[in-house]
Amino acid sequence: MRPAPIAVALDAPDLETAAHWASLVTPHVSTVKVGLELYLRYGPEVIASIRGASGVQVFLDLKLHDIPNTVAGAAKAVARLRPAILTVHAGGGPAMISAAVEALPATQIAAVTVLTSLSEADLGRIGIAGPSEDAVRRLAVMAVGAGAQALVCSPREVATVRAEVGPDITLITPGVRPVGAASQDQARVATPEQALADGADLLVIGRPITGSADPGATAAGIAAALRRTLADSGRAL
Ligand SMILES: O=C(O)c1cc(=O)[nH]c(=O)n1[C@@H]1O[C@H](COP(=O)(O)O)[C@@H](O)[C@H]1O
């Protein structure tokens, strides 16, 4: 059985914990995500430690956001780590996104549209004209025009973004919460089944899996639910 399109966010305070989570979930999921917490504590070598012998796809979530020249240099600096996906903030603008795409041709550059932790009220406070769906759509179209092959948005907007950018762009959705799970600091959330049904290609899920009593079993359970969703819609993994 092919692993489910889930990227487990390994947001752990230490490498041992992250590697343990990775070993528990990799039989069930396609991808693990290394973010700022692990990368800044352990440096680039953390990628090899996490990838290990499993061959799991590694998503490097650094959310780069700087002038084009600096982002191009940063992207080249991580090329040797061979991440499958690298995030940049769409708000950095088209030249910055293009610079990342050109600097790292073997990696999918994913442009983060509007952070899933931001509510409609937060958007107003930072001066972004809402509603969030419109802001996400504007940023998505701009990022794809600049060469991004992947986009990060909340599952609430994924159907709109899919309709706008077509089938060839990889849509990645954090802000995923199984029924009954707490939202925590996420503002725009939906269930894994809904995110997939609405067109997401890869679901980023952290604490609902890693904070559970048995991360392997939780990942397997969500993977099974996604398989049922795909089967119901005539798709397969
Ligand atoms: O780029 C991301 O992965 C990301 C973008 C976004 O808008 N929201 C968001 O939550 N994320 C990441 O997705 C993960 C979500 O983790 P949980 O809230 O624990 O499921 C975290 O590692 C975040 O850094």
Automatic annotation (TrEMBL):
GO cellular component: cytosol
Molecular functions (GO terms): orotidine-5'-phosphate decarboxylase activity
PROSITE patterns: OMPDECASE
UniProt entry tagged with the keyword Lyase: yes
Record-annotated Orotidine 5'-phosphate decarboxylase domain positions: 5-222
Catalyzed reactions per annotation: orotidine 5'-phosphate + H(+) = UMP + CO2
Enzyme class: lyase
Entries under InterPro entries matching the protein: Aldolase_TIM, OMPdecase, OMPdecase_AS, OMPdecase_bac, OMPdeCOase_dom, RibuloseP-bd_barrel
Binding positions (substrate): 11, 33, 61-70, 116, 177, 186, 206-207
Sorted UniProt keywords: Decarboxylase, Lyase, Pyrimidine biosynthesis
GO BP annotations, alphabetical order: 'de novo' pyrimidine nucleobase biosynthetic process; 'de novo' UMP biosynthetic process
EC number: 4.1.1.23
SMART domains according to UniProt: OMPdecase
Pfam families per UniProt: OMPdecase
Active site per UniProt: 61, 63, 66
Oligomeric and partner information: Homodimer.
Function statement: Catalyzes the decarboxylation of orotidine 5'-monophosphate (OMP) to uridine 5'-monophosphate (UMP).
HAMAP family documented for this protein: OMPdecase_type1_B
Sequence similarity: Belongs to the OMP decarboxylase family. Type 1 subfamily.
Protein's name in the database: Orotidine 5'-phosphate decarboxylase
Species per Swiss-Prot/TrEMBL record: Streptosporangium album
Gene name as annotated: pyrF
